[in-house]
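ok so I'm stuck.
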Amino acid sequence: MTEQEIRDLLSEALESLFEIEPERIKPETNLYEELEIDSIDAIDLIDHIKRKTGHKLQAEDFRNVRTVDDVVKAVLKMSQNTQ
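replied:
not stuck anymore, here's the structure
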């Protein structure tokens, strides 16, 4: 997947799973402080990404994620490592 495809997937997930307005989703947006994503939401997001990409983000990898861009980079790295 390309970086843009991952960004689009993440935006769609945040909008559909958590009803977050698209204009609030920017690369620098903090998932926990600005979008109020909690640990249960993070698990739902990881599961959604797995279903859409076929790749599972490890919880350890997600622990270091803070912003939308961090998620994009983690998914991109994961998808490149499995190719």
